[in-house]
């Protein structure tokens, strides 16, 4: 007798066999766990592994036009989380030059060990040492602390700025970064609108073009993030130009390496402003799915980004680890921390030690959004794909919105969950929202109305029960 897993695999195989004569359209699904539809993409596109649940037809000539075999999931387990002492290499403490009333005049040091386990979402407005955030100077210190904690326990260390040089020819911006006697070079393609400029620009993760409609008057910069840090599977660890420069054992996961690459693009734009005719003070960043996670981290780590536009980033992006676990314990099938570290190398290897008990982490991804605040942030999610975590992203970003509330900047925050479309295809129902955010934060139309928090689902979820803390007015 077949086991349930074998029976499920057989049904998937039989379903796929029945549609071999069909081809999937561009941007359509072509594989993934439980998928029984077409696995061959239309001419001019190939089946790209977004994650174990979703393969998508994207433009280009990839390694294959059919979906790879159905993946298996490897869970990384641990029996004890490591402890950190003062001698342990860790992310540097935040600057001590920022005055802080709540912190006694300077920013408190980043703790060298984990605090108490917290089952609800950690308080954005309380330092790890227990001090309260009571003013904007405190908030600056708290952001520095949050960033250091993300680097230490989940994302890996973001290196200091290297020496950067750049040149521009045609539509190609060539960038060289040098440090420690080593150099790497990469390039991006800039597609500019008609007009005199200087133009704002959106950096798009992926060299095949943006999956959101870029409004008129805005340039697009195509960033081949895979060139900076590979992300094929677990064997990609330490591969890519970032690791050629800093060493294959560097703690940064791919998401941090890509954020580093975005920062180097902005460095280069600052150096070549008169040649590119791009305004480096009006930069947005976007990407979808795995690249949406990357865009979110870039917006969090790079303060020169004016507008962050993650699309369907799910777990590891707009979703909170604690909420994903809660969903799975209540019968959902959501990508969580245990699964995601076995799938790919987006996170630091340091994170592996915490995925079986995410409650011990001193942060969750509502605090990733706090690193963007109060800059523009518009998050697009799709509830039709359960593994993305329609509740975990909604609840997580509902908590994140409180960061903007404290700063009196609710108009700069947007979360929009709209179904009825393919993964990484853009629904028309979000067009007016996207255009409004781009108009205000990239095109400079200050009178534009922004700020949105909505879902087209009946989620019946109480955000407040996960946020047992008081929102101050900073």
Explain how this protein is built.
- The chain has about 475 residues and is of the alpha/beta class.
- The protein has 2 domains: about 5-60, no CATH class; about 165-465, Alpha/Beta hydrolase fold, catalytic domain (Rossmann fold, 3-Layer(aba) Sandwich), CATH 3.40.50.1820.
- About 25% of the residues lie in helices and about 20% in strands.
- The protein has helices at about 5-15, 135-155, 225-230, 240-245, 255-270, 275, 290-300, 320-330, 335-345, 365-370, 390-405, 430-440, and strands spanning about 30, 45-50, 55-60, 165-170, 170-180, 180-190, 200-205, 220-225, 280-290, 305-310, 375-380, 415, 450-455.
- The strands form 2 sheets. A 10-stranded mixed sheet has the order 4-5-6-8-7-9-10-11-12-13, sandwiched between helices. It has a 3-stranded antiparallel sheet with strand order 1-3-2, with no helix packed on it.
- A hairpin with a 2-residue loop joins β4 (about 165-170) and β5 (about 170-180).
- The chain is globular and about 55 Å long.
- It starts with a helix and ends in a 19-residue tail after the last strand.
- The model is unreliable at about 1-20 and about 65-105 (pLDDT under 50).
């Amino acid at each position: 007798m077949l086991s349930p897993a074998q029976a499920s695999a057989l049904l998937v195989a039989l379903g796929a066999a029945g549609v071999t004569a069909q081809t999937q359209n561009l941007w359509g699904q072509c594989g993934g766990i439980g998928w029984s539809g077409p696995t061959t993409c239309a001419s001019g596109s190939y089946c790209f592994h977004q994650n174990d649940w979703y393969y998508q037809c994207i433009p280009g000539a990839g390694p294959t036009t059919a979906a790879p075999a159905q993946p298996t999931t490897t869970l990384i387990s641990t029996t004890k989380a490591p402890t950190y002492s003062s001698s342990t290499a860790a992310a540097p403490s935040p600057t001590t030059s920022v005055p802080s009333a709540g912190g006694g005049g300077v920013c408190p040091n980043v703790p060298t060990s984990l605090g108490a386990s917290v089952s609800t979402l950690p308080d954005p407005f309380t330092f790890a040492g227990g001090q309260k955030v009571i003013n904007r100077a405190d908030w600056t210190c708290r952001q520095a602390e949050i960033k250091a904690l993300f680097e230490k326990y989940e994302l890996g260390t973001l290196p200091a700025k290297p020496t950067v040089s750049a040149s521009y020819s045609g539509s190609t911006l060539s960038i060289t970064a040098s440090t420690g006697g080593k150099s790497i070079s990469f390039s991006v393609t800039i597609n500019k609108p008609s007009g005199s400029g200087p133009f704002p620009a959106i950096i798009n993760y992926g060299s095949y073009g943006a999956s959101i409609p870029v409004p008129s008057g805005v340039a697009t910069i195509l960033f081949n993030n895979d060139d900076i840090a590979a992300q094929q599977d677990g064997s990609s660890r330490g591969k890519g130009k970032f690791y050629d420069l800093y060493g294959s054992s560097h703690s940064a996961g791919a998401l941090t390496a890509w954020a580093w690459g975005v920062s180097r693009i902005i460095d280069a734009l600052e150096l070549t402003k008169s040649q590119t005719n791009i305004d480096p003070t009006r930069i947005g960043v976007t990407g979808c799915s795995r690249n949406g996670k990357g865009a979110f981290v870039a917006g969090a780590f790079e303060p020169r980004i004016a507008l962050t536009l993650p699309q369907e980033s799910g777990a590891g992006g707009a979703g909170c680890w604690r909420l994903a676990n809660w969903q799975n314990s209540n019968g959902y099938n959501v990508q969580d921390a245990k699964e995601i570290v076995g799938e790919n190398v987006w996170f630091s290897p340091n994170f592996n030690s915490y995925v079986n008990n995410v409650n011990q982490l001193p942060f969750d991804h509502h605090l990733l959004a706090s690193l963007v605040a109060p800059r523009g942030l518009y998050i697009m999610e799709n509830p039709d794909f359960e593994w993305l975590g329609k509740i975990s992203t909604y609840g997580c970003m509902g908590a994140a919105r409180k960061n903007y509330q404290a700063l009196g900047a609710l108009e700069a925050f947007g979360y929009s969950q709209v179904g009825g479309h393919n993964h990484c295809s853009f629904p028309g129902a979000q067009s007016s929202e996207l255009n409004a955010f781009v108009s205000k934060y990239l095109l400079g139309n200050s009178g534009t109305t922004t700020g949105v928090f909505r879902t087209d689902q009946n989620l019946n979820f109480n955000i407040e029960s996960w946020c047992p803390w008081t929102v101050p007015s900073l």
